[in-house]
Design goal:
The protein is of the alpha+beta class. The protein has two domains: 123 residues, SH3 type barrels; 299 residues, Fumarylacetoacetase-like, C-terminal domain (Fumarylacetoacetate hydrolase, domain 2, Alpha-Beta Complex), CATH 3.90.850.10. Helix content is 19%, strand content 27%. The termini are far apart.
């Protein structure tokens, strides 16, 4: 795991004034990556680093004389139309570029005037998916979420027997992953109404969101060569916000015997910015497992994972209805929780994914699984929050929701903060539901 260094210094300031504003998502201690271009321009998409309300254009940086050596190699790779080649360079290159950019953007940097031409205001840019995603795997690793779902059907229900032994997952659909701002139509599919003898083909009536983190794989592994738990995090470049939209009525009918299909393949919305594992280093916590629960099998157990395998990433879900948009009253907060509650760690997800011989590639994406906490108001999906519409939530403008309605926009937000360290944020993942086409 990455050790703390000068880039985590809470006292560090940037000559980009907006990066020093309290509550800013992108101070100099963060420096996340995205793929951007000026809005509506014919420019190629290229990598950029967020600093305050600006984007540091890595293509412009690489074309100048500001960086050299391994940092220059990394900047050139990150300036391409996708971050895959940059991911493939590995931790030493990722760190070289981060440290070089940190020095260039620091308040003590000598060549400020030369660098100003490499900045583009974020209000003037548009984003795309930051890498070519070869494979997308969605996990199911929150015991609080799993218990909440089980108890909707049986008040005394428990998770499936394998949940406490193995990080469960399924393979999702890459073609419908979109960046924040994604708009998608309510899906069509089969659903079986309670007591019915035959299913009906209809628009989804129980549309849901799922609060997740996206895990971007950096370097991969050869087929047949499992990644040991002790080295698993070296294969993770960073994290983003991820909304795994779900059609619950379609899902409950189609789940047996092979799991999610149409209920999960119509849209997945990610935030444009990838916060690196190095930036997240100060927010690690001990990973714990209740003493009465089964402890991980040896290939999923390591002292480093116990000592710092959890991350305290604060997360919130907000909903903006079409009416609220028209009235300009703003979104309503639905819930908030932390990733530290997750039952399985990031390293365990990577190690388990490869133990059977599966190869990962740079740019592969994992979904963490819905992130719910143990407390009231910590549900990561509306099906939990409303008990499948039995107890609808009331929005700030008086509207109620059991499930999502057409025109609803769901916003995911995330950040990390702790005493003695800077607050860093993930930006926003926003997706909007359009009426069904069927």
């Amino acid at each position: 795991m990455i050790e703390l260094n000068h880039t985590h210094d809470v006292g560090a300031r940037s000559w980009v004034a907006s990066a020093n504003v309290a509550g800013c998502d992108f101070p100099i201690q963060n420096l996340p990556y995205a793929m951007f271009r000026r809005t509506g321009s014919p420019e190629p998409f290229r990598g950029g680093v967020a600093i305050g309300d600006q984007v540091l254009d890595l293509a412009a940086l690489a074309a100048g004389s500001h960086v050299n050596g391994l940092a220059l190699d990394a900047a050139r790779a990150a300036a391409l139309p996708a971050l895959n080649d940059f991911f493939a360079l590995g931790q030493s290159a990722w760190q070289a570029l981060r440290h070089a950019v940190f020095a260039l953007l620091h308040s003590d940097a000598p060549a400020v005037d030369d660098l100003r031409g490499c900045l583009v205001p974020q209000v003037e840019v548009e984003y795309t998916v930051p890498a070519r995603i070869g494979d997308y795997t969605d996990f199911y690793t929150s015991i609080d979420h799993a218990l909440n779902i089980s108890r909707l059907m049986n008040p005394d229900g428990d998770v499936t027997p394998n949940f406490r032994w193995v990080p469960t997952a399924y393979h999702g659909r890459v073609s419908t992953i979109g960046v924040s701002g994604q708009r998608f139509h309510r899906p069509m599919g089969q659903a079986m109404a309670p007591g019915a003898k035959a299913p009906t083909y209809q628009a989804c009536a129980r549309l849901d969101y799922e609060l997740e983190l996206g895990v971007w794989i950096g370097q991969g592994n050869a087929q047949g060569e499992a990644i040991p738990l002790e080295r698993a995090e070296a294969h993770i470049f960073g994290l983003c916000l991820l909304n795994d939209w779900s059609a619950r009525d379609i899902q409950f009918w189609e789940m047996a015997p092979l799991g999610p299909f149409l209920a999960k393949n119509f849209a997945t919305t990610i935030s444009p910015w990838i916060v690196t594992m190095e930036a997240l280093a100060p927010y690690r916590q001990a990973w714990t497992r209740p003493a009465n629960d089964p402890q991980p099998l040896p290939y999923l157990e390591a002292s480093a994972n116990r000592e710092g395998g959890a991350l305290d990433i604060r997360l919130e879900v907000w909903l903006e209805s079409e009416k609220a948009r028209e009235q300009k009253t703003g979104p309503s907060r639905l819930s908030g929780t932390s990733f530290r509650h997750q039952y399985w760690s990031l390293a365990q997800m990577v190690a388990h994914h490869t133990v059977g011989g599966c190869s990962l590639n740079p740019g592969d994406l994992f979904g963490s699984g819905t992130i719910s906490g143990p407390g009231e108001g910590e549900a990561g999906a509306i099906i939990e929050l409303t008990r499948a519409a039995q107890t609808p939530v009331t929005l700030a403008n008086g509207e109620t929701r059991g499930f999502l309605e057409d025109g609803d926009a769901v916003l995911l937000r995330g950040w990390c903060e702790k005493p003695g360290h800077a607050r860093i944020g993930f930006g926003e993942s926003r997706g909007t539901v359009l009426p069904a086409r069927g």
